[in-house]
Amino acid sequence: MFERILAWLLSGAQALLMLAGLPVTPRGPALDLDKFVLTWSDEFEGDGLDTDKWGGHYFDGGAAPRRDGWWCLEMAQVRDGKLHIPSAYMEEGMAGGPAGYYSAGIDTSRSFAQRFGYFEVRCMMPKGQGLWSAFWMFNHQVGNVDGSGRDGTEIDIYESAYYVKKCPLLKNAVTTNLHYDGYGDAHRGTNVGKYRVTEPYDTFHTYGMEWNEDEYIFYIDGVESGRSSFGGVSQNEQWLILSVEHELGGWAGDISLNKPGEMTDFVVDYVRVYQYK
Fold it and tell me: Is 139 part of any domain?
């Protein structure tokens, strides 16, 4: 009886926090990996980014503008068995771009896409306000305006935009979001939830998503955090994206206010993709 009462109280508290827009601790069922088989992975064991797997997200080379900064493929570095995406201000610019803040956004659009399964990253988020790291999925049909996400949905498995000091209750939280029908007036989006993570800027955690024809189920460290069928659920193949963006003011804060040495790399241990057996 006590366990039932405690579970009911915790459930109610979680609901109130979500209504208030505050992060909750994932408390759902554990992930069952036994029903999947590995189909694709990158363990980042080489001495450089594997360009047979990864390319620039919507750019092939040089510097590409993104939010309040620039993406450059050269900023995606592999060393010590990890992918590192640093952020830095380049006085002279980089790869043909102007002076500004540089990082990278890389994807598998040229090499790998999959429909349904389980998709996971193990990573450590970057410290510093104005930094916005993410593990997400996409396809070209996300831009189709047809009143449905069934042809393609931007699936933000995790985003970190809360390091900024003015949001202490959100600092150690990630957010999960879904978007479809492009990014204009017809855009549709929803926040699946905000979730509390223990020391995400200093320790590694896994962020994953199980995707079937009926719903998306999200996990943090193998524990269900939330689920949604918003938009009708994409029925088409989608590819993987790892990225760091910069803001000069907004949800993530102002990157220009970081002290020297305060910003750290986005560090990825692995990305793994599974399909149903």
Answer: yes
Mean pLDDT of the chain: 93
Euclidean distance between CA atoms 53 and 2, whole angstroms: 51
Question: Which phi-psi region, left, alpha or beta, contains residue 39 (left: φ > 0; alpha: ψ -120 to 50)?
Answer: alpha
Please report the pLDDT score of residue 5 as a whole number: 46
Domain that holds residue 169: 27-276
Cα 230 off chain centre by: 18
Task: Name every residue whose Cβ is closer than 8 Å to that of residue 14 and which is 6 or more positions away in sequence.
Answer: 24, 25, 27
Strand runs (DSSP E) across 212-265, as ranges? 216-220, 223-228, 239-246
CATH number of the domain to which 82 belongs: 2.60.120.200
SS3 41: strand
Q: At 21, which amino acid appears?
A: G
Query: Could you tell me if residue 12 is inside a domain?
Result: no
C-alpha span between 97 and 173 (Å, rounded)? 32
Low-confidence ranges of the chain (pLDDT < 50): 2-3, 5-11
The DSSP call for residue 111 is: T
With a threshold of 0.85, does the pTM exceed it?
Answer: yes
The answer to whether the Cα torsion of 264, 256, 195, 188 is positive or negative is negative
Tally of structural domains, the chain: 1
N-term to C-term CA, the chain: 39
Whether 14 is covered by a domain: the verdict is no
Please check whether residue 230 lies inside any domain of the structure. Answer: yes
